[in-house]
Amino acid sequence: MKITVRFSAQLRAAAGEAARTVEATEGATVQEVIQEIAELYGNGFRSLLLDSEAVLQPSVLVFADGEQVLWDSPAPLRSDQTLIITTPIAGG
What is the pTM of this model? Predict the structure, then answer.
């Protein structure tokens, strides 16, 4: 099934692109796809996204079709879903 993954903020800069479409297996979770994406872009990107135990960094937010995904609650994916992976932006 096709999943669109969009990056914003520093994750977009580290990935070198704003989005990527990936093929996920039936029954895949958001967490599994994020771990696969982390490996695709190399260590610099991976360290922004995941800690040394492959857990989402506390400063990263993930949304599946507009709803926030909590890392410790497996979130099954549906075909044609869009994931947004971002870091909060502060400023005034």
Answer: 0.89
